[in-house]
């Protein structure tokens, strides 16, 4: 797990001071995939670099796997970092080394003997689906394959935490999806805690359990993705479903925006409504999205007729439905 408590990071001093992180507190529970979403300059890179202290916060505490990192000496920090793997947008592979030797690199650094190293590299190659590429050089690989090597290298020392620094930003949509699927699979199979930074909502939508939205160095929202999507007015819900503007020529009925998540999205809610009430239902706008294999949707309805209020109350009482009127 990762816990950030009141992290501040200021670059430079005096007139040149830049406040990159401003009182950031986060909790990434063990075994979850946590996304930090933000636009360019929001402070995402600074934040992820503070997790393994590649960047030292100006103040605040960083706790990873139960250990407060800011108080460790150099040897303690080196050891703690072995439990934190990291993958990068541009892969950062060594061009003159083969795939197998790139993956072996961190094992050489910790002094692991050659036979164990070779065994471990073999396991890692098959874990990321590159068993046939051991002797290839990075230049001979596609972007997706290079990132798989990056992932294998990051997992070499069996870390509990994997950090992903915009790991799919340089990849096309299909390759992005396959890398995200691999991360989700590793998260499940190894119980790996994953913290990723991204400016892409699709990444959050595809794999994140939890998300924090970073703006100008501050966390403006955080929580379970499912909860935030369902929460009217949240930043995440707004990204998924941009505000639906009712058309001017509405018929004077009651307006209700319903958001449905998971099981509620599978129910034939509108046909139930029409069966139970003397009500007219006009769909004025909306959309349906898939979030980690679950469907979520938002519809703007206009309810008219004698039972319009009762129909709206019925919608409000349904579990899994959020209604704004
Ligand atoms: N080494 C540095 N020295 C001074 N200012 C810095 C340094 N690194 C980052 N900054 C500033 O800190 C702020 C946050 O930068 P950061 O790179 O963390 O944002 P980001 O969200 O990762 O952006 P991007 O997506 O463009 O990489 C920016 O205003 C940036 O200019």
UniProtKB/TrEMBL annotation:
Entry's Gene Ontology molecular function annotations: ATP binding
Swiss-Prot/TrEMBL keywords: Amino-acid transport, ATP-binding, Cell membrane, Membrane, Nucleotide-binding, Translocase, Transport
InterPro entries named among the record's database cross-references: AAA+_ATPase, ABC_transporter-like_ATP-bd, ABC_transporter-like_CS, ACT-like_dom_sf, MetN_ABC, MetN_ABC_transporter-like, NIL_domain, P-loop_NTPase
Domain ABC transporter: 2-241
Pfam families assigned to the protein according to its UniProt record, in alphabetical order: ABC_tran, NIL
Protein name, UniProt field: ATP-binding cassette domain-containing protein
Organism from which the protein derives: Pendulispora brunnea
